[in-house]
Amino acid sequence: MVDILRLHESIRGAFPEFTTDPAVHAHLFSPYALFVDRPALEAMGRVAAAVFDVAGNPGYSQRVLQWAPDIATHDPGSAGGVLGLDFHLTVDGPRLIEVNTNPGGLLLNALLLDAVRSCAPPAWATWTNAAQARDAAVTAWMEDARQQSGRTPSRLAIVDSTPRAQFLYPEFELYANAFRDHGVDCVISAPEDLSFGSDGLEDAHGRIDTVYNRLTDFALEDASHADIREAYLAGDVALMPHPRAHALFADKRNLAVLGDPVLLGRFGVDAGSTALLGQVIPPTVELVPANRDALWAARNGYFFKPWTAQIFIDTHRPLCA
Fold first, then answer.
1. Over 245-271, what HEC string results?
2. Most buried residue among 14, 15, 46, 197 by CB atoms closer than 10 A?
3. What is the mean pLDDT of residues 115-138?
4. Per-residue confidence at 231, pLDDT binned at 50, 70, 90?
C-alpha cells in the first residue's frame, strides 16, 4: 500500500508549486502499487520501436493520412514529442490498446518512482529516479521544439481549456517548473489567453514561441483555437504534440492498420515489426453501416472506442485470458 496523504505531503515539500484540492484530487494517485516484470517492460519497448518504425513508412503514412484532417498534411519536421502507449497486461504478454500524443500523468508517475520504494519487492529495481525521468521528459519535448523551429524554446505556454479546472492541473505546474529549470520561461494558459498577430503568438506579457498542447482538439478546429492554429501553420510557433503526430500515431482508426500484418507487408514494413504488432494489437475493425447490427448484437465481446462521429472497436476477448 502507498500512503497517499504522506505522498502528497512529500511532493508539496519538494515541489512548492504542486497544489492539489482534496475534493478534486483524492484519487490522483492510487493507494495500490503495481509492479510490472522486466520481460513485459522489454516487450513494451519493442512494441514502441515497432510503432515508430511503421509510422516512418511512406505507405502507412499515406494510408492513415487519407482520413486525417487537412492540417495533418503540414509537416513541421518533428515526430511530435512524447508518446504514451497504453497496454493491457495479460498472461500472454502486454497488448497495445491505444497510442496517445499528449500523455497525461507522465511527471506524476515520475514522482511515484521514489515514493513506492517503501512497498517494493526486494528484487525490484528501477533504471531511473524521479529527477532523471522528469529531465528526460522535458528534454524530449524541448528537442521536438528545436526540430520544428531550429532553436531552443525561450518562452513556452502549456495550453488547455480552463487549465486550473483540469484534473491533471498539478502536472501542469510540475511541467512549468521543470521547463523553467531548463532555462525556458513557462506559463500555463487557456487558448483564449493567446492571440496571433504581426508580432507573432502572444499573451498579455509577451511573445510565445512554443506551445505544449494539452487540448484534446488535436486538429485545432475549435474557433477558440484559431490563433494557435494560424501561428502553427505560419511556422511562428513550435507546437508539441502537433496534428500530424496525432494523425500518424494516435488516431484510433490506425489500430486497424497497425495490427494488420498483410497490409503492413504490402507497405514493405520490416517483417519483425509486422509480426510483433500483429501479435500485440487486439483484432480491430471499424464500425460502419454494413456491420453495425452484427457488431451491436455481439457487443458484449467488444470494447467500443469513439472517434468523433465514428466508432472504432477492438475485441477485448483476447485480453481475457
1. HHHHHHCCCHHHHHCCHHHHHHHCCCH
2. 15
3. 77
4. very high
The count of other CB atoms within 10 Å of the CB of residue 63 is: 16
- Can you list the pairs that 58-63 forms with residues at least 24 positions away whose Cβ atoms lie under 8 Å? 58/267, 59/266, 59/267, 59/268, 59/269, 60/257, 60/264, 60/267, 60/269, 61/248, 63/257, 63/263, 63/267
Task: Tell me the average pLDDT across 21-40.
Answer: 78
C-alpha 312/C-alpha 314 separation (Å) is: 7
Q: CA nearest 84: which of 48, 113, 108, 56?
A: 48
Kind and range of the H or E element at 87? Answer: strand 84-90
**Please, which residues bridge with residue 286 across strands?**
312
Whether the predicted pLDDT of 309 surpasses 60: no
| Distance of alpha carbon 133 from the chain centroid | 16
In angstroms, the CA 153 to CA 293 distance is 51
Q: Alpha-carbon distance 219 to 71, whole Å?
A: 6
239 pairs with which residues across the strands? 211
Nearest-angstrom CA–CA distance, 309 and 303: 17
pLDDT band at 3; cut points 50, 70, 90:
low
Going by DSSP bridges, is the β-strand pair 155-159/210-213 parallel, antiparallel, or unpaired? parallel
At residue 163 the predicted structure's pLDDT band, cuts being 50, 70 and 90, is very high
| pLDDT band per the 50, 70, 90 thresholds, residue 27 | confident
Q: Write out the three cell numbers for 211.
A: 506551445
If we measure between CA atoms, which residue out of 173, 197, 195 comes closest to residue 186? Answer: 173
Count CB atoms within 10 A of the CB of residue 7: 18
pLDDT at residue 1, rounded to an integer: 60
- Sheet of 302-307: strand order equals 284-287, 310-315, 302-307
